[in-house]
Design a protein that fits this description.
This protein is α/β, with parallel strands linked by helices and 293 residues long. 27% of the residues lie in helices and 17% in strands. Helix 2 runs parallel beside helix 3.
Length: 293
């Protein structure tokens, strides 16, 4: 699998706040796990202990405020001072470091679309596959429990591979695919699916990250998510949303000087923060950029 660019898909904070305001009453009214485009009722215990899915073994979280490098575009020798690294699931972990395994869990990369059953690809009213045009990725249809189970079989196989390769954690990407589902499913389906993945990851001894999706951070105890990997929370003034839910267990990736400056101004003493080039190019590649506070 080739990861060619970062997957940041942020929206302005004002829009996010409006979305949260609209979602809140639906969360209160809708039954948990509903297979609809609505939202699920969920607790808001944002201070819950990590690894909150019941019946799972304890997992080890990445150390807070650690030197971090984001290497999903290709593995290379981590810079001095780095103790936590995130790499694609098909890359080997960095020896001696805390390694997070990147998995594209909610969407399908262009070169893998033939590996999925046709009915598991989300379709519009005309029967055409719904594509995330930013990345040319098909969206997986997690609208029903039956389909979520079938999709999870494949994704959990990747998670198994992360565990057997020696990773300590997994970051399933595109948790926010409901934003691009054209109303075919909503946050309840996303939360139900990530909860399945959380339980499986914990069963394999892996911690699991919430990737982006600030609107659902407060439900991390319900979904069993242990820490957050937040792209551009400085750029869009969302870092406090993640810290409210996860405390210092937040890893921040910025892609602009402004975003890095904002993140560092507020959280350089508490969070892991790095700026990378948008294409997350490996060290030595054209356009490579890495900066910290």
């Amino acid at each position: 699998m080739s990861i060619t660019s970062a997957r940041s898909r942020r929206i302005p904070a004002a829009v996010a706040a409006l979305a949260a305001a609209l979602v809140a009453p639906l969360l209160a009214a809708s039954p948990a796990g509903a297979d609809s485009a609505g939202t699920a009722s969920a607790g808001t215990d944002s201070g819950a202990v990590s690894g909150a899915v019941s019946g799972t073994a304890a997992v080890t979280l990445p150390p807070a405020h650690a030197g971090f490098d984001y290497q999903i575009g290709g593995a290379y020798t981590p810079p001095a001072g780095v103790t936590v690294v995130s790499r694609d699931r098909e890359s080997a972990p960095a020896p001696g470091l805390y390694n997070i395994c990147y998995v594209n869990a909610f969407q399908v990369q262009p070169d893998e679309i033939d590996e999925w059953d046709d009915d598991l690809l989300l379709r519009d009213a005309n029967g055409d596959v719904i594509i995330d045009e930013d990345w040319e990725e098909a969206i997986l249809d997690i609208s029903t429990a039956a389909k979520r189970t079938r999709i999870a079989e494949k994704v959990n196989g990747w998670i198994d591979g992360c565990a057997s390769s020696g990773f300590q954690a997994v970051e399933p990407d595109n948790y926010d695919s409901y934003d691009r589902s054209q109303g075919k499913f909503g946050t309840s389906a996303a939360m139900a699916f990530i909860t399945q993945l959380s339980a499986h990851a914990h069963g394999k001894g892996l911690a699991i990250a919430q990737k982006n999706t600030a609107d659902l951070a407060e439900y991390r105890s319900t979904t069993g998510l242990d820490f957050a990997v937040a792209e551009e929370c400085g750029e869009w003034n969302e870092c406090d949303t993640y810290t409210d839910a996860f405390g210092a267990d937040v890893i921040v990736i910025e892609y602009t000087a402004k975003g890095l400056s904002t993140a560092c101004a507020g959280w350089k003493d508490t969070l892991s923060i790095v700026r990378r080039d948008l294409n997350v190019v490996p060290l030595g590649g054209k356009g490579y950029l890495r900066q910290t506070c």
